[in-house]
Amino acid sequence: MGSVVVSVDAELGWGFHDLESPPRHRVEAGRRGWRSLLSLFDRYDVPATWAVVGHLMLEDCDGRHHDHPAPPTWFERERTAWADRPDLRFGRELVGELLASPVDHEFASHSFSHVLFGADWTSRRLADAETRRAREVAADWGLEPTSFVYPRNDVGHREALAKSGFTAYRGRTPTPEGIRAILETGLGGKSLLVEPHVDRHGLVNVPASLFLFGFEGRLRSVAEPVFGDPMVQTARRAIDQATAGDGVCHLWVHPNNLTHPRDDDRMRAILAHVDRRRADGLIVETMADVADRVLEAGDAIPTAAPTGSGSEADVAADD
Questions:
Q1: Which domain holds residue 54?
Q2: How many domains, in total, are found in the chain?
Q3: Domain holding 22: CATH number?
Q4: Which value, in Å, is the radius of gyration of the alpha carbons in the chain?
């Protein structure tokens, strides 16, 4: 019997602050989506791995971060265009609501300020600072995250994670995404299950299976009224695959993906299906649960990753 993992990239404005023209509808949807997801997880008693950007947990700052080795312009939007938007830069009350949830969610890290770990300009010193500062802020809340989700899934500097005390990360997906996922799983029967494994740094790679908002815009608007939501159908197939066999169905989402009630409907339908399949033996895990299980099974020797974009060969250059 397999399992389902749901991971959440909780970032508010930090997911977009480095973009020249951030998508306004998503920037403004972060808080709404956060609370909608929490409510839906509560309703279906589904524990998720919430990877939170550390800066959200600060009470205040001047946007200078003099002791941070990021490029000089990295915090510029915080100091300028968003200087009067604390709702995009901070989220202490949202983190408090997450921690107060009756569901046993995992608190994980999404770095301190959403630095791209695989970027050419990200040095080991910067990666160390991002992981160290994120853990310091979490420690101020009495938290000690063990799972890490790379900003934009840009895997790199895994040695910095291991040094900082993390034990698991969400790896790149070896499975199709977006329209390919819909077509290859629906027509070709391709599996969306992944196999977590220990990498050469001793970290458990829990690869992603399916991004739940990879089919949007005009295509979704045309397809949904006729065929129903294709992403719901694809997620249900992946969940059914996990129910029928071994492996992990690792679904992921951003709160800011929930910009409209129909997005809430998508998540409601997917989580309701997870809940139904539990009666058939499906297990719901967090990334930390998976990591503990893999390590307890004695898989402490680094193993080869599944073929595809999540393989060790593809990320080795980042280290």
A1: 3-318
A2: 1
A3: 3.20.20.370
A4: 19
Which secondary-structure segment (H or E) carries 277? Answer: helix 261-278
- Run of H or E including 107: strand 106-109
Residue 318 has pLDDT above 60, yes or no: no
CB atoms within 10 A of CB 196: 25
Contact 143, 277 (CB under 8 A): no
In the chain, the amino acid numbered 307 is T
Please enumerate in sequence order all residues whose Cβ is within 8 A of that of 27, keeping only pairs 6 or more positions apart, or say none.
Answer: 13, 16, 88, 256
Secondary structure class of 108 (helix, strand, coil): strand
Helix, strand, coil shares of the chain, percent, nearest 5, are 45, 10, 45
pTM of the predicted model, to two decimals?
0.92
CA distance 262 to 82: 29
Torsion angles phi and psi, residue 3, rounded to 5: -145, 165
Residue pair 215/182 in contact (Cβ under 8 Å)? The answer is yes
CA–CA dist 56, 189 (Å, integer):
41
Q: Find, among 257, 290, 283, the residue nearest to 46 by Cα.
A: 283
- Residue 40: pLDDT band by 50, 70, 90 thresholds? very high
Which residues face 204 on adjacent strands? 168, 198
Distance (Å, rounded) from C-alpha 316 to C-alpha 311? 9
Residue 257 has φ and ψ, to the nearest 5°, of -75, -20
Output DSSP code: residue 217: H
Q: Which helix (H) or strand (E) holds 7?
A: strand 3-10
State the Cα–Cα distance between residues 64 and 99, nearest whole angstrom: 29
Summarize pLDDT for 148-207 with one digit per residue, the tens: 999 999 999 999 999 999 999 999 999 888 888 888 888 888 999 999 999 999 999 999
Q: CA-CA distance, 23 to 11, in Å (whole number)?
A: 14
Q: How far apart are CA 214 and CA 27, in angstroms?
A: 17
CB neighbourhood size of 141 (10 A): 14
